[in-house]
Structures are given as C-alpha cells and as structure tokens.
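User: Okay, second chain of the day. Same drill as before: sequence in, structure tokens out.
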Amino acid sequence: VRLKFKVTGGAEDECYPLTAGPMWDGIAGFTPVDGRFCLDYCDGDLNGDGAITPQDALTAFHCYLAPVDSCPDCADINGSGEITPQDALCIFQKYLEIPSCLDENSGGR
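Assistant: Same drill. Structure tokens below.
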C-alpha cells in the first residue's frame, strides 16, 4: 500500500511519528507497522551533490518518463502531486538563474 500525504504544517527537516491503525475490508489481513514521516526541504538538488545542475533536471524528467521507486522524494518540485516536465523545467530555470518555482514565495515546496 502506498500512501501520499500533503503536509500543511510542521517544520522542515523534522520527523513526526506516523501510527497505522487497525486494518479493515480488503486489507484486514495486513499487519500495520508504525513509522515516521519526515519533512525534507526540496531545493532542486535531486542527486544530493550540493548544487543544482542540469543533471538534477534530467533526473526529474527521467522520473516523469519512467517512474521507479528510486526516484527522489523531492522530484515533484512544484508540489503538484505528480512528477511532470514542469518539475524538470523548474530545476533547469533555477540552474540558469532565471525565475523558477524554486524561488522564494513562488509555489515550490
């Protein structure tokens, strides 16, 4: 089971407990496992090398074309709920130092 959350509060770089309740209906046989939910700041550096580069934009575009579990959690740069070419464009615009969804107060996550 894959769950998707939209976070409206909390502090960046903090983790919060996530408790799974009892299961019912078609998933009644599953055993719930508690975990944690961490809020990471999505700055466009998808490969974690410390810089926003065309490689990061290419990673976002690759995740759009062939989504796999290895795609970074932050590949949905603009927080639209899905990875699209717009996410790759946003990263590339930031790299080119032109207005981007990653700029302050522009809608990025």
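The mean pLDDT is 82.

User: Thanks, on to the next one.
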